[in-house]
Amino acid sequence: MAVTNSELENILDVINDRLQGLNGEGFNLKIDKNIFFQIVINKRGLFEEFTEMVREKWEKFKNGKTIIDHTYTTFLYERFNEFYSYFIEKFYGLDNSSLDLIDKENVSDSTLLLEYKYYLSKEEQRLFKRTSQDLENKTHGLVFPTAYVFSITAVFGIILRKTIKQKFYIQLDGAVLKGNERDYLNFLIIVKDSKDQIYTNYLHMQLFIFLKPFNNVPERYYNKLLKGRDNLYTKAIQKYHDKDLNDQIVNLLYYFYRKCILLNHISPILDFFNFVCSRVEDSVFSKINVIRKDYLANFDEISLEKKSSLIKIFNFLDRKSTLSSTFLANNLPHPKSQLNLFLLYKKYYFGSGLEALEVGDVLFLPDLFRKNLNNYNKDAKYPIDSNSIKHIANFLNYFSVISNVKNINLFFLRIFGRNVSEVNYFFFRTFFKSFNKKFFNIIQEENKNLSNNSQEEDLTFPYVSEHICRMLYVLIDKIFIKENLEEASENFHDKRGRYVGKNIALRVLELFFFQDFNFSDDLWPDYIISWNKEKVKRDVKKFDLTIPDKYFYSENDLTRFLITYNLQSFSKELFLEEWLLQEIIIPLNNFIQTIKHSAKQIEPDLIKKELVDFFGKNIDDEEILKDIEFVSQQLSMFWDVFK
């Protein structure tokens, strides 16, 4: 192990140096992948030896005289662990004897799931902890070794795909650091079909809409995009008529189940849940009636009380996934959109005052909020009471004025120490952590209600998750799956508009997109366009069109999507109730009170001067200073409330 640890330390030092030298850009998918590829390329001889080994075994398998299907999933079912354990040790300094394959499952002809544990030595724990601390502000909350194993797996997948020339992706799709006597990383790897052509067509369909506000795009290019849209519909209709479509949906839901269980978290299925339930609301059916009559009625062994508990849990997910999706739908790339998102959830949480936060159902964990607030107020220079929350809510109404200036982030950095997209990123991470805690609390509450029956077994997270997945399958089957698309259209109110046959086929195809994008479908267009930003920019440059970066998610934004929604790594985060207090309420209250006490009198001109000094410190740019003057003038009127 000494040699391996020495090599690991050298690699982590290289990663640290590279990321520290990125002028604040930090860890993102493309930069990180380049670093990890370079590590492999530096071992050219070993790399060629590895790829030749893979290629030889693939050719032997492909040409073998066996009755099994010669698919990449069958091949990797037998060989994945051999290749992966070799790869992590020879190229990245990990000890393959510490890698334990817990489970592997050929879910379908195109999907393979592998669950691993990697046991960390004391020295590895020290090295990864040091790297996490050194890069604390550059990894978006993703800690090592998770980031390390994720990147290794991504590079491994690309090399394997190119070596055997098959269309699949390999991705680490969830990881949790656990352990008592010895820490280990428990992680899930998925091998799945690439859907490259489908996503190219989807990109074309979305670009047709995206480019409309811009001039100079010729008709011939729009025709190309329309052809992509037509191809997408054709593929969707073909998919709808697959003989094994129902089995594919079952396999998809099983993937969600496995991911939820690994992470001990309900959020991986949350947006998929909302996607399905919102379509049921557009149909002629009632969600609860379908679940009762077409699903729960089939389980004689489940008591009426337990069925009632499952319905309550389903209803909770239905309500709160709608809230989550409402917030997510506003998580768009432009800074003004990010500001609108910030103002939206702040209005939701602060609009009803302090009492709603402490004892209402606005927060998932109001008791935790109240406890932290009471502790803070014991020694606070500016204690927070009901008036404070009213003032904050009122101030944020004035704060929307910053949407009229270019440098929105300047004002966020001055008050919160983060730009607006970073604030929103940590909002979602803490939101999902509290959501999951509340979900577990509800399961415990229902178990108390069931405890009167000594024959009744407790509800568990795996048990509930399995039933939620099964309920979703029944709902999908009820509204979408018929002998033909015309018959399926009859299930919906708007059967000649939004739910004509080809649109239903597309909705069914989109169900499978969630395996690649575990977040709201409202964000897919901007996400996929941003992922292909360089290609899009090259294409439109031919028409003398330049699209500003503000219309795309940044590389950091894309990385945050992956970390939040695909890796779901929340263990180090605050709960939402803690975060709202520490990162939003306290900074805003301190800001409001500091300006109030700094001015000699509550007069607009004096308040404006304090605001200009606060926001304009160390700024010489005249244009920015003009924006600060304008914003300060508008904000100054808020302090009239203290007269």
Strand order of the largest sheet: 1-2-4-3
Number of domains: 3
Helix content: 55-70%
What does the main sheet amount to? 4 strands, antiparallel
Rounded to an integer in angstroms, the radius of gyration calculated over CA atoms is 27 Å
Overall pLDDT score: 91
**Number of DSSP helical runs:** 27
Class inferred from helices and paired strands: mainly alpha
Distance between the termini: 69 Å
Shape: globular
Regions with pLDDT < 50 over 5+ consecutive residues? none
- Please report which band the strand proportion falls in: under 5%, 5-15%, 15-25%, 25-35%, 35-45% or over 45%: 5-15%
Total DSSP E strands: 4
Which features does this protein show?
single chain, 27 helices, about 650 residues, 3 domains, mainly alpha
Write a structural description.
The model has no long low-confidence stretch (mean pLDDT 91). The longest helix is centred in the last third of the chain and has 31 residues, at 420-450. The protein has a four-stranded antiparallel β-sheet, with helices on both faces. A hairpin with a 5-residue loop joins strand 3 (168-178) and strand 4. Helix 1 (2-20) runs parallel beside helix 5 (122-134), helix 10 runs parallel beside helix 19 (461-479) and helix 13 runs parallel beside helix 18 (420-450). The radius of gyration is 27 Å and the shape is globular. With 643 residues, the chain is mainly alpha-helical. The chain folds into three domains: 2-194, no CATH class; 197-326 and 449-544, no CATH class; 335-437 and 573-642, no CATH class. It contains 27 helices and four strands.
